[in-house]
Design a protein that fits this description.
This protein is of the alpha+beta class. It has helices at 46-63, 99-105, 134-139, 145-168, 216-219, 225-236, and strands at 6-9, 13-17, 23-28, 31-34, 39-42, 70-73, 78-82, 85-86, 89-96, 112-122, 131-132, 171-185, 188-194, 202-206. It contains six helices and 14 strands. Bound molecules: adenosine-5'-triphosphate and magnesium ion.
Length: 253
């Protein structure tokens, strides 16, 4: 069997060449990293959960007319997506203060913000993905003004969708990060949501208990990450109740 071509090995995913030009296969690994990869672990089942959850969110976004790279899920760990030119920015939308923003501005975690706040970080691991302003983005040509208008509009639409979906299952969307990519359709180019949307890239708090159901469980050693992600998947109906997608196949003698 011909080996498929690996395009990129990231911290959480591996990209392979897709079956047709302009497509990519995203393989979701079990690797978890935090604090710019200073903290690392393998969390069995995380890749399966993120693959299913990202499929769920991206499919929903496509359905309401927010364009994404998602084409179809191929198996438990892989999905077929449109290849894009990634805009080198992490686009963060915050509804409640948390993480670096809470620290930077001295706001208590969990404080509701007056309105959703969109932040941009330069995608550069060596620099620790520094916060940048629209002035930097324009001056250095990372994205055009038209791109920035489109990115803001996509980010806020994703926020409304995600906040609504989460609220429906008793979860508060504190914040999230997305990546945006450029695709070309003939003479036209447009921006679409790429990468992944999963509890790795969102902050999700249970409304009733305040319990964290996202990657902060790993960052702050708050318990089992797979239990937290499974809880999100189960509430959304992505995983049947009581299933353990992360279990390795057992050898039967
Ligand atoms: N549709 C797509 N087409 C091309 N590249 C993509 C697409 N979706 C996501 N990517 C890129 O694929 C990589 C996914 O791997 P992963 O998330 O593990 O990377 P990472 O270790 O977080 O590194 P990075 O700092 O590049 O995001 C990212 O670099 C992301 O920007
Ligand atoms: Mg990534």
């Amino acid at each position: 069997m011909a080996r498929r071509k690996k395009i990129y090995e990231g911290k959480a995913k591996t990209l392979y060449e897709g079956p047709e030009p302009g497509t990519i296969i995203q393989y979701f690994k079990d690797d978890a990293t935090a604090f710019n990869a200073e903290k690392k672990a393998v969390i069995e089942g995380k890749g399966v959960l993120n693959n299913m959850l990202s499929e769920y969110f991206m499919t929903g976004l496509n359905t309401i007319g927010v364009p994404t790279h998602f084409i179809k899920r191929l198996n438990m760990r892989e999905q077929l997506v449109r290849a894009v030119e990634i805009i080198p920015l992490e686009v963060i939308v915050r509804n409640y203060a948390a993480g670096t923003m809470a620290k930077r501005l001295g706001i208590e975690e969990g404080t509701q913000l007056p309105r959703p706040i969109v932040e941009y970080c330069l995608k550069d691991d060596k620099l620790g993905d520094p916060l940048v302003t629209e002035e930097h983005i324009a001056a250095f040509g990372w994205a055009s003004q038209q791109d920035m208008d489109d990115i803001l509009s996509l980010a806020l639409r994703v926020n409304d969708f995600m906040a609504g979906v989460m609220y429906g299952v008793g979860i508060k969307l504190i914040d999230f990060k997305i990546e945006i990519g450029r695709v070309y359709d003939g003479d036209f180019q447009r921006l679409i949501v790429a990468d992944e949307i999963s509890p790795d890239s969102c902050r999700l708090w249970d409304i009733a208990s305040g319990r964290k159901l996202d990657k902060d469980v790993f960052r702050r050693d708050l318990g089992s990450l797979t239990d937290a992600y499974t809880e999100v998947a189960t509430r959304l109906g992505v995983m049947p109740k009581g299933s353990t997608p992360m279990a390795r196949p057992k050898l039967i003698n």
